[in-house]
Structures are given as C-alpha cells and as structure tokens.
UniProtKB/TrEMBL annotation:
SUPFAM superfamilies: lambda repressor-like DNA-binding domains (SSF47413). Residues 22-75 form the HTH cro/C1-type domain. Signal peptide: none annotated. SMART domains: HTH_XRE. This is Helix-turn-helix transcriptional regulator. CDD domains: HTH_XRE. InterPro entries: Cro/C1-type_HTH, Lambda_DNA-bd_dom_sf. Coiled coil: none annotated.
Length: 99
C-alpha cells in the first residue's frame, strides 16, 4: 500500500505484518472492531486501516491500540532499553573540509 511516504518494500512488509498481528491479537481476545473502538477511542475505520498495514496511521493511534490490547509494555521495553532493541548507529565520518 504505497502512499505519499517513501517506504521500502521491507518497511511495507513490516507494516503488513504488524497489522496482521494486531488483527490476530484482537480476534484472539474475541474483540470486534467496535469493541476495540470503545476501548481505545479510535474509529473502526482507522483500526481497519491499521490492520491492513496502512503506514499513514499515526504512532499515537498505534500506541492507543497496543494499550487497549495489553501490549503497551512491549513498546515500553523498546523505549526503556533501546540499546538492547535497536542497534547503535554507525558513526559517519566527517567530510574533509576541503571537499
């Protein structure tokens, strides 16, 4: 689902997998889109877009949905110890000033 954002194919696949996992978690908890809408205050149309892997859904919406499904602690783990979850960026050498 390509939108105005520049996303790689691997990023698009990640959005797709995330949406599928959110849908599976919702169904595992036996929640309808209406149920989830009532829990997190996000309209079911937006929830459907998130579950479809739409990358334009905001991070705030994602956090609200993850919290409603009981998965916010997983994101908190990444935030609280980013060194374990996200590899350190490689240092980029400075350009020669004469360049």
């Amino acid at each position: 689902m390509r939108l105005k954002y520049h996303t790689s194919l691997s990023a698009e696949a990640s959005f797709q997998r995330l949406g599928e996992r959110i849908r599976a978690a919702r169904k595992h908890k036996r929640l309808t889109l209406n149920d989830l809408e009532n829990r997190c205050g996000v309209h079911r149309t937006t929830l459907s877009r998130l579950e479809a892997g739409d990358p334009s859904v905001s991070f705030a919406v994602l956090l609200a949905v993850l919290e409603a499904l009981g998965f916010l602690s997983d994101i908190e783990a990444v935030i609280s110890s980013p060194a374990k979850a996200i590899p350190a960026a490689k240092k980029i050498p400075e350009l020669d000033r004469n360049f």
